[in-house]
């Protein structure tokens, strides 16, 4: 099964480039507004990586990252910023609020692909998710993503 990417950018050219370069490796959900992406997530879309621009017409990408990272449902999803903002302050702020990587535009498609693969590789680590606490017990469940990432690696090398 292909890994799912949610890509948010208001530039049709950037969305087209990402679609052209990555559609054979990933299942892509392309949005030109954050509100469209939020609608997909609210309807239950599960994605493996979120890629977002910062300067979008309906909301700032930094605010969207803050929402994602503060949500218990979505906080574990790696987030990659692609932006025309090349200053270190913007990059640092994005990484401090929870973005996993920052790529400046213009970018090379392989640069984005390597970042995605790196973020998916980070899922090899075990993630502990607190279970619902009905009787005062602090129980945790372990989710192991190693097999999922191994499957992705097999697909990406074909």
UniProtKB/TrEMBL annotation:
Positions where 4-aspartylphosphate occurs in the chain: 53
Tell me which domain of life the UniProt entry assigns to the organism this sequence originates from.
Bacteria
Ranges for the Response regulatory domain?
Answer: 4-120
Q: Which UniProt keywords apply?
A: Phosphoprotein
Show the Pfam families listed in the entry: Response_reg
The cross-references to SMART domains, in alphabetical order and at most eight, read: REC
Q: What protein name does the entry list?
A: Regulator of RpoS
Q: What organism is recorded for this protein? A: Emticicia aquatica
